[in-house]
Amino acid sequence: MQEEIPLEGGSGWSQDQRAELVLGALVCLVVCLLAAMLAFVLHEAWPSFSHNGLSWFGNGGSVDNQIQAIFTSGDVKGAPVYTFHAWPLLWSTIIITGAAVLIAFVSSLFVAVFVVEFAPDWLKRVLEPVVRLLASVPSVVYGLLGVLILVPLIGNDLITQQEKVSVNPTIQLSGYGLLAAVLVLTVMIAPIMIAVFADGLRAVPRNWLEGSLALGINQWRTFWHVAVRTARPALIAGTVLATARALGESVMLSMVSGGVGFAPNPADGLIFFFEPSRGLASTILFNTEELDSPPMKHTLYAIAAVLLFSAVMLSFTGWAAKQPMKRYGMVA
Amino acid sequence: MRSTTRRLALLATVLGVLALPATAAARQVLIGSGSSAEQPILNVLFKAYSKLHRSIAFVYTPNGGNAGVKDVQSGRSAFAVNTRPPLPSDSGTTQYKLYLDGLCVAVNPANSLANLSVNTTKNIFLGLSTSWSGIPGSNLSTTIDPIGRNSTAGSYTFFQSAILGGKTQASNVIPQTSDGLVATAIKNDANAIGYVGLAHAGSGSGIKPLTLNGVACNATTIKNETYPLFRYIWGVLPTAHPSVAAERFLDWLRTDHNAGRIIARAGAVPAFNK
After folding, report:
1. C-alpha angle B264-B269-B271 in degrees, rounded to nearest 5
2. A118, A187, A215, A302: most buried, per Cβ within 10 A?
3. What is the CATH number of the domain that holds A268?
């Protein structure tokens, strides 16, 4: 019936107006859905937060024993138990995500610079699709590679018997731990960063670079000081995107990070890198079978709320960091 | 106007094609839920049963045995499959023994250990025994790497009550989210020990099941209930007005010899109407 309505004027709305209306409604719908989801998660999470107060984020006792006490209290229909101190899980998420993002950022930046500016054309044509493909590999594939190759390698070749004895029976060092988790996570998020960084670097106006070259400044310095500086909003956008993926990663990390609620201690020296832990997202995955126990459900929603809040803060920080760079005239 | 008509005709055709299978087959869909550990065996049984009875189709949600019982109580599922015996909280349901399964304790083939007592197993998983040098029969003198299941798994609950006397697995036990990952971890680490379902301890698994208190972990010892870690898998139906089709399916599963053969091939032990 579309063809019969006049494009402009007449009795009805113009096509532009209708498109605007439909798109506006869709945006409102998405925003409403998001708000509803936030409200729902916070509502479900409230019992866990209100019972524990700020000590929810603190350290105290074995978090795994607390989780077990929480879900058994729901199964036997007694008084619900809510005591939960999430510090080991928070700490695990912070160090694994932090280390992976840091390593991935530095390496991705150099790879992106190479791909955009220095690689010969034939190599560019190979590298670009490869990076995009790597960015879309499902995380469980990386998890499998980690479990089958990296974890046995670390467990059998890097960890010595003395190191294992020194922490036994508190924890087990067998390859499942920080090192494996950080390495696999880095490999997982680096392609996302490279893809976004490269897009940002390519968008830098060519004549800016040519201007610099014409002044006799060499290619490396030109690119580093002009292109990379200009593309900083893209660097932030890529980092925010990759950090969000790392924060929410559950399947791969639950396979290689060790799965125990233990807070790795940097004071342990070299052993620190081999210590097992379990992050927030993996904890949700580990305990989904007990969602029917009401206190466990509220606790898992509380974890989800913390993850959601971190994601929101991450986007906000990214936005705030981009503001002072607006004067460079590039927005990513 | 013509293009609109054509579009409408196309839409009608597409809708017609979509509606066709629903009307032609008119299958009865049996909704079940429960144990995730038993899902591989159940999937094979569903397929075989649907082949025998073309009018029956299955939808099974592996949300855990306890959740399955609650689904039957609330009428969300026609049947459930659970790995623990009935509890007082299961009121309003009738439960049947479907078949048997066993939890095997296994080590890496590089370990010369062949037998373990229930008590030593308990000490290892409670973190009291930490070195292979303290375990008679083992050629290793290294640290023991115990591998377990995550605390919400049915196998964990079963192991906890049958071996650990209700105590919690020690913090040096690395928890895995599936039996397959436990088997992989044992295969890749000479110092490892772990527990997996019978289906995961077969000859191709690359791990070595131990005898427990001198009794091997196999179909025979599980069937005659001499192996310490045998367990029944239970079928759950509502006591009031159970679905006739679900009842028939569970009856076939626990009495029919073809079903028994399928169960045995899938890695469990038929109980034949015990």
Report:
1. 120
2. A302
3. 1.10.3720.10
